[in-house]
Amino acid sequence: MVRPRRWRHVYNKVEFNYFKPLGMPLTQLEEINLDTEELEALRFTEIEEMEQTEAAEKMNISQPTYHRILKSARKKLAQALINGKAIKIQGGNYKMLDRGGAELRKGSGGRIGGFGAGIGGICKCSNCGYEKQHVRGQPCNQIKCPKCGNLMIRG
After folding, report:
1. From the centroid of its chain, how far is CA 121?
2. What is the DSSP letter of 112?
């Protein structure tokens, strides 16, 4: 039996969750999904200029795991920038904490900001607003909007 993943600690709420090349319609772009904890690792390393051991401790993970998360995030960003792909920030396996360390909420799965909608819910188009009932086992981010062709998100 596989050991369950530890909740990664994230302190920075995602305000902007989608970036795309200017002048390109979403329907013509491939997307790269950047997990919330990957964004947090980038923030700690590149903006806060923390050492990996300190950042890993804050995120409640080992330093090798932190390194893998950071490496994955950097690769995804490079692919998006060099190949003109959209970046969607969502999902992951994390606890959102306030600056004092108190838990605000848990995130997991594929909704914007990483907070899954459970078994029910809706799939929503972030481009035109079209909504449809979510079908369990069918990820929203693999369904194209029937109105505009954009990939749907969990709403």
Report:
1. 19
2. B
Helices 52-59 and 63-83, packing angle to 10 deg: 100
How far apart (Å, rounded) are the C-alpha atoms in residues 7 and 41? 14
Q: Which stretches does DSSP call E strand in the chain?
A: 8-10, 18-19, 31-34, 86-89, 93-97, 103-108, 122-125, 131-133, 152-154
The DSSP letter of residue 28 is G
Determine the Cα–Cα distance for residues 18 and 32; give it in Å rounded to an integer: 10
Q: Decide: helix, strand or coil at residue 124.
A: strand
Q: Residue ranges of the alpha helices (H) in the chain?
A: 36-42, 52-59, 63-83
**SS3 category, 15:** coil
Tens of pLDDT, residues 94-150: 888 887 777 776 665 543 333 333 345 678 887 787 888 877 777 888 888 888 888
